[in-house]
Design a protein that fits this description.
With 154 residues, the protein is mainly α. 81% of the residues lie in helices and 0% in strands. It has one domain. It is elongated. This is NIBAN protein. It comes from Origma solitaria.
């Protein structure tokens, strides 16, 4: 009871007025990281479509879709997404001194984990909605892949 009132006053005067601007500043790198995840997924699926249109090979299509499932764990391909979030390092340094925010690396790591999880979910959903083995008409496969991709990106 004796700590509650001074703590409330401290939060109200020293932290709450800055929360909106802090969140806006932090969301820039976070949003660009998640946008990069979306772009990477889009690019990878487009490559599958283009490869299929060139080869019309259902076996190769299945291999490419299977390879897509490893995308969230491919650190080389995911690195550009992760680098966008590394900008938080600089932004959080200011917060560290002003608000005693520690464990900056943890915040970045968790954000990167969420990015990987988002990619896992996108790939899983794509895989569930599109199964090359279920496609009987190879003429419609590229169109079907595109429709599934757009559905996943929604």
């Amino acid at each position: 009871a004796s700590v509650s009132e001074p703590a409330q006053k401290c939060c109200t005067e020293n932290i709450q007025p800055f929360l909106t601007s802090i969140l806006e500043e932090l969301m820039g790198p976070v949003s660009s990281g998640f946008t990069e995840v979306r772009s990477l997924f889009d690019k990878e699926v487009n490559e599958i479509i283009q490869d299929f249109q060139k080869t019309n090979d259902m076996t190769r299509l299945k291999e490419n879709v299977d390879q897509l499932t490893t995308l969230p764990y491919n650190s080389v391909k995911m690195e550009p997404c992760y680098l966008k979030v590394n900008q938080l390092q600089e932004l959080l340094q200011d917060l560290k001194s002003r608000f005693k925010v520690y464990h900056i690396d943890f915040v970045i790591q968790r954000t990167q984990n969420f990015m990987q999880e988002l990619m896992e979910n996108a790939v899983y959903t794509f895989e569930q909605l599109f199964s090359p083995s279920r496609q009987a008409d190879s003429a419609k496969v590229a169109t079907t892949i595109e429709k599934v991709k757009l559905r996943v990106l929604k």
